[in-house]
Design a protein that fits this description.
By secondary structure, the protein is of the alpha/beta class. The chain has three domains: 154 residues, GTP1/OBG domain (Spo0b-associated Gtp-binding Protein, Chain: A, Distorted Sandwich), CATH 2.70.210.12; 175 residues, P-loop containing nucleotide triphosphate hydrolases (Rossmann fold, 3-Layer(aba) Sandwich); 66 residues, GTP-binding protein OBG, C-terminal domain (GMP Synthetase, Chain A, domain 3), CATH 3.30.300.350. It is 22% helix and 22% strand. It has eight helices and 18 strands. It starts with a strand and ends with a strand. 42% of the residues are buried.
Amino acid sequence: MLADRAKICVRGGRGGNGCVSFRREKYVPKGGPNGGDGGRGGDISVIATRQVRDLNRFRRQIHFRAPNGGHGQGSDRRGADGDSLIVEVPVGTEVRDSSGELVADFVNEGQVAVVAHGGEGGRGNTCFVTATRQAPRFAERGLEGDELWLDLSLKLLADVGFVGLPNAGKSSLLAALTRARPKIAAYPFTTLEPNLGTIIFEDRIVVLADIPGLVEGASAGVGLGDRFLAHVERTTLLVYVVDATTGPEGAALALDTVVDELRAFKEGLADRPSVVVVNKVDLIDEAEIDDLLATAAGRRPQAVAPPVAVSALSGAGVEELRATLRSALQVADAAPVEAPPRPRVAVRPGEDRVSHFSVSREADGYRVVGAALERLVAKADLENEEAVRYLQEVMERAGVSDALRRAGAKPGDDVAIGAAEFEFA
């Protein structure tokens, strides 16, 4: 079956640690520090390609981890940056984070988006040399890369989408119009996954999608309807297929049911340009056909062409439907298109100043929040006394201690910065 949903975990590579090293050469006394910086961890990027049909590969692999950055070395040698990891998804895939926020929407082949950044590399001891600190014996650690769970949802890219109740003959119409060979049988829910076919006109190639049958409650997930309806979202023209053998009342009920489910699933979906097709007319007489067309004409939602009577089995009306689809698409292409939601942009940590922070009171102490300050603490080697002294100097110059005093902190109170905890003194 078509795998159109998946959940994966992506993690950027960890940054390499900085190096503590000193130049030691013959006849070069007091050579000084020469520890190199660590390399940045690799990013994870997602790219859209037509070489992948669905999301089936993510049933076998759900964890993706980019390579780590290399550690710094002596002689001022910087660690190598981790290579980026590329994850391929089919065109039409929508990527959201665990909160449901849109991360990327891949509608074009070759479209790329960075979904997880690698961690920063730590600085070597060369970076901490000052006039009063000429031989620093500490370096920074590399940071962990971004780690998050992503929900992938494949929505087929098609110009025309066939929608209707089960057993209305949508698959038969697709087979009559194109070279597609979907499964066709005389019972409902024969189609369990969307099928695609193409019609080649002189000026364009039209992609048709046969959406599995919708029933009442489909928008709420009845009969996997919510998953099927997702494939309708990107279609330019909707073709409502009704069964002629159900009579005018049955055709009207079928149209109302499908339109209601489209409207309940997503606002504006039922307002897409549409055409109504009455199928299986070979099983009724001419008078009944006229009644059905009149009923369809009175209930057609956002129709851009008159309803068409077709028999997918005998081929009657198929050429007329082909011409109707071509003219209807020209009208639908000119209709205003709903602007897609803007994806969240995954950006690297900014270059905020250490002095940009805020202090808040918590039940068991105080918390200092600031992006640059938290990164500095996370990269510090808190087991190294000299590194701790340097960190304390930086926080004093940034005004952290003064801000804590103004907030009411007293000696012995706990202070949290990122994942680290300190005792205020």
